[in-house]
Design a protein that fits this description.
CATH topology of the largest domain in chain B: Neuraminidase
Number of domains of chain B: 2
Structural class of chain A: alpha+beta
Number of helices of chain A: 6
CATH superfamily of the largest domain in chain A: OmpA-like domain
Number of strands of chain A: 5
CATH architecture of the largest domain in chain A: 2-Layer Sandwich
Shape of chain A: globular
Distance between the termini of chain B: 32 Å
Largest sheet of chain A: 4 strands, mixed
Shape of chain B: elongated
Radius of gyration of chain A: 17 Å
Radius of gyration of chain B: 23 Å
Number of strands of chain B: 31
Oligomer: heterodimer
CATH class of the largest domain in chain A: Alpha Beta
Number of domains of chain A: 2
Distance between the termini of chain A: 22 Å
CATH topology of the largest domain in chain A: 60s Ribosomal Protein L30, Chain: A
Strand order of the largest sheet of chain B: 1-2-30-29-28-27
CATH architecture of the largest domain in chain B: 6 Propeller
Strand content of chain B: over 45%
Structural class of chain B: mainly beta
Largest interface: A-B, 46 and 64 residues
Chain lengths: 185, 430
């Protein structure tokens, strides 16, 4: 439990960091609740960590970010795309999944989230479940390749975070995917 | 036959908290357009209340708007009658019969010494020539709109025999660019209040059975988490924030627990969790997706979506013995079940040849009736009297709210300017 919480905090601190660096003029918490200023802490500590926005800095000083972000390295490729109504990792994306699995095997402390996404067809909630299945498919493959269960958390965004906001087949194809995000990114 | 009315949809009416700076949103407007159904509407004449002109906001106009939007009434001009009647005794029925009215509403607004206002109204059945009701309210000016909705509820109930829903509230999600808001408004869209603002998506708002709390799913922590927020003080709690995805909250009828979909043990599976949080209890195990639970009114069973049979279909689970029965049999995509208040059927979303429609199904006859044409209709929310379904549809590439009567006869488009509106929930009777 405490390890889970720690991972959660790490991820959220990382999110805050990402948010800060990508939108430097963006201040304040991403979420405002009416009359809840201090009451934001009413949830678990991990939540307020996520919405606090006062991020830790310099967590990537160990240099491993380079390997994960070097465009020449396959580890910089983070998306696995799926056919309509499919949860099968296609052959063309296997090398990406395998590379990330090797990375996890070589670094038992590394943690990642696999985020599943769907196209806009279907309801909000049912698509959460479909996206979850895509994320789970990627995780299952990584675990088969030796990554540890605890290293990978699978979550789903359903149709809530389309990469392409369009309404045609091209947009849908871009949105049916699973994204790999490391803790500390 | 088309009727066009306008609603003020001022956004961003917010309580100021000392620590939070809340942005005041731009004023937007919703247009409600009734499509069809007016042929069967009861002709009613609502005479402007005597004394009404002394106040910036009247009452008779709001009453008329409520009744007209219900699709069950059409207004017969009641103005320009001299002298203007304000009580049942003063109504000259032959004048109204000549204009074609079956019912007449008259009233008055009288300022009192303490600053309050005495509002009186009477409802007269012009056909049977009898007074159906006489009521008096002592209210502040801030309560005018609420009073008008109460009066509309009384009139609706007297003349249709069904409960009025004009005093209820609705919740929905707005999106403007990357700003998402959970808003709560009166059933006519007025008086919107923002209770959550986020840069990430919000979905699945659900009023608690007593209307004091609202459950919803927020992606603010880069994953779906279920929150329960008090509408009294704005405090909230993450009641399901487990490893993996947490979504699809559904209140039990007694408001003590929620069914949620969690992926923490693998897959998407149904759990029960206390409304105050704690350890979830798994409802059942299936090899496929189980999600979108909704309690039947008696709390003994719930409907849910599952693809255990190959395609997404609606099933019913009896909680006591774990018995499961498949409910929908036709089509390849039937999801988002919402039981009707009388428990005799449910509303759901069906997808047929890529077209998503709102439909109803009766448990007894197994008859399916499509209520909307689609093509992208979802998120049905049933009025507490069971007569209307609010849902999200598409118009001009944007998500808009719409409402349809439970027989599909009356449909209203609710168009919003400059923002997307979706994921409605309908609050309980007040």
């Amino acid at each position: 439990m405490s390890r889970l919480l720690k991972f959660g905090l790490l991820v959220f601190a990382a999110m805050a960091l990402v948010a800060c660096s990508s939108t430097p003029d963006d201040e304040g918490a991403p979420v405002d609740e009416r009359t809840v200023a201090a009451g934001g802490g009413a949830g678990s500590g991990a939540d307020t960590g996520g919405i606090g926005g006062t991020g830790v800095s310099g967590t990537e000083a160990d240099g491993r970010g380079n390997e994960l972000k070097d465009p020449a390295n396959i580890l910089s490729r983070r998306s696995v795309f799926f056919a309509f109504d499919s949860y099968v990792v296609e052959d063309q994306y296997r090398p990406i999944v395998e590379a990330h699995a090797r990375y996890l095997v070589g670094r038992p402390d590394a943690r990642m989230m696999v985020q599943g996404h769907t196209d806009e067809r279907g309801t909000h909630e049912y698509n959460i479940a479909l996206g979850q299945r895509r994320a789970d498919a990627v995780k299952r493959m990584m675990v088969l390749l030796g990554a540890k269960e605890a290293q990978i958390e699978t979550v789903s965004f359903g149709k809530e975070s389309p990469r392409n906001p369009g309404n045609d087949e091209m947009a849908w194809a871009e949105n049916r995917r699973a994204d790999i995000v490391y803790a500390g990114e | 036959m088309k009727h066009r009315g306008f609603l003020r949809w001022a956004s961003g009416i917010i309580l100021i908290s000392t620590a939070l700076m809340m942005p005041l949103g731009a004023r937007a407007q919703l247009t409600i357009e009734i499509i069809g159904g007016a042929g069967a509407a009861l002709p009613i004449s609502i005479v402007p209340f005597v004394g009404e002109a002394n106040f910036p906001l009247g009452i008779s106009g709001v009453v008329g708007g409520d009744l007209t939007r219900s699709g069950r009434f059409r207004q017969i001009d009641g103005a320009n009658i001299v002298p203007r009647p304000s009580t049942a005794e003063e109504v000259n029925i032959s004048i109204f019969r000549a204009r074609g009215a079956d019912a007449v509403v008259v009233g008055s607004m009288q300022p009192l010494a303490d600053g309050k206002v005495e509002v009186r109204f009477a409802l007269v059945d012009a056909v049977k020539q009898q007074t159906l009701t006489n009521m008096v309210y002592t209210v502040t000016q801030a309560q005018f709109r609420a009073t008008a909705h109460r009066i509309a509820d009384v009139i609706y109930e007297k003349l249709t025999g069904e409960l009025g829903i004009f005093s209820t509230r609705i919740a929905y999600i707005t999106q403007q660019g990357k700003q998402y808001q959970l808003q709560i408004a009166d059933a006519d869209g007025d008086n919107p209040q923002t209770i959550v603002t986020s840069k990430d998506s919000l979905i699945s708002p659900r009023f608690s059975p007593d209307g004091s709390r609202i459950a919803y799913v927020s992606f603010e922590n880069r994953k779906p988490v279920v929150y329960v927020q008090s509408l009294l003080d704005g405090k909230r709690q993450a009641i399901a924030n487990f490893r993996g995805s947490n979504s699809a909250p559904a209140w039990s009828p007694d408001g003590t627990q929620l069914a949620v979909t969690l992926s923490r043990d693998g897959g998407s599976q149904l759990f029960l969790i206390a409304a105050t949080g704690g350890q979830p209890r798994r409802l059942m195990s299936s090899p496929g997706i189980d999600t979108e639970a909704a309690f039947m009114p008696d709390g003994e069973s719930l409907l849910f979506s599952s693809d255990r049979g190959g395609s997404p279909q609606i099933y019913r689970l009896w909680i006591a013995d774990g018995r499961v029965e498949r409910v929908t049999v036709e089509g390849s995509y039937n999801v988002s079940p919402q039981p009707l208040p009388d428990g005799k059927g449910f509303v759901f979303v069906r997808r047929d040849s890529g077209r998503m429609q709102i439909a109803t199904m009766d448990f007894q006859t197994r008859q399916v009736l499509a209520l909307t044409p689609g093509p992208m209709d979802e998120s049905p929310a049933i009025a507490p009297n069971g007569r209307y379904v609010l849902y999200a549809g598409q118009s001009g590439g944007r998500s808009v709210l719409a409402a349809v009567s439970i027989d599909g006869a009356i449909r209203q488009r609710i168009g919003a300017l400059a923002q997307q509106v979706r994921e409605p929930s309908w609050g309980p009777l007040q």
